[in-house]
Amino acid sequence: MAMLYCWCTHQKVKDVIRISITSASLPAKKRILTVCVRLFLEKGYKRTTVAEILKAANVSASTFQNIFHTKDGVFIELVRFMFDNQFNIALKYTEQNFPPVFIYALETSIQLTLTELNENVREMYLEAYRQPQSAEYIYRHMAIRLYQTFHSYLPACTESDFYELEIGSSGIIRAYMARSCDLYFTLERKLSRFLTMSLSAYSVPPDEQREILAHIRTLDIRGLSEQVMQELFRNLAMRFSFSLGNS
Q1: Phi first, then psi: what are they for 20, rounded to 5°?
Q2: The pTM is what?
Q3: Is the pLDDT of residue 1 over 80?
Q4: CB 219 within 8 A of CB 202
Q5: How much is the pLDDT for 239?
Q6: Which of 129, 134, 86 lies closest to 233 in space, CA to CA?
Q7: Mean pLDDT in the chain?
Q8: pLDDT computed for residue 204 by the predictor
Q9: Least confident of 7-21, 63-77, 147-161, 183-197
């Protein structure tokens, strides 16, 4: 893990803001997070204003700024929670004997499908890849998984190489997330296109790719993604004590 902080020393990378929280400010922080989860899911991230957050959380502007600095600060914390939990949840619906490459295919398929189930969830994922600090967290988080999954296919690649490859993979998945499915560009075609491109980039042999795609097509990916989304929301609710309502 220590190696991760030595990556890309040839360029300047902003690290994720570490916010110091005192015991006195914890109740306010929890109220802010509770309100933001609800508003982001109900109204969308961009349409939620700081003024609405302050009013609903019953906190002053100075308290908000001391804890999170900006609305982006709240969002980054939620992104960390979402990305830390979504893959663990997806693993519950994966057979134990599946090789890592199959698990990668399932997890990324679920992630793409989640954005087709809820437009505000789509916006949150796109924003997560757009903001430099949350994107940097995703790159580092995913690079570890990519190394574990694809190192046998690319044995000459280091963890730093997988970090750089993840930047490209993230660009591909973000582009597919941004493009809504329709009658012609169906979800099945989207998943097939993405998996073919990403698995090829990681040197997975064509025969193995076809086997993976065939298995993904046998799954009720929408049903699985719905279960993952509901469990993710339940975990958010337990962490931040908000009411799911009709989300």
Answers
A1: -85, 120
A2: 0.78
A3: no
A4: no
A5: 64
A6: 86
A7: 83
A8: 98
A9: 7-21
Contact 143, 63 (CB under 8 A): no
Q: Which helix (H) or strand (E) holds 215?
A: helix 206-218
CB atoms closer than 10 angstroms to residue 30: 15
d(CA 195, CA 213): 8
Q: How far apart are CA 65 and CA 68, in angstroms?
A: 5
End-to-end CA distance of the chain: 36
Lowest mean pLDDT among 26-35, 87-96, 115-124, 143-152: 87-96
Quote the distance between the C-alpha of residue 166 and its chain's center.
13
Burial class (CB in 10 A: 0-12, 13-18, 19+), 163: buried
Cα dihedral value 75, 80, 84, 89, nearest 10: 0
User: Within 10 A of 40 (CB to CB), how many other CB atoms are there?
Assistant: 24
Token digits of residue 137:
């967290």
- Do the Cβ atoms of 31 and 57 come closer than 8 Å? yes
Q: What whole-number distance in Å separates Cα of residue 99 and Cα of residue 6? A: 29
Query: φ, ψ for residue 186 (rounded to 5)?
Result: -75, 165
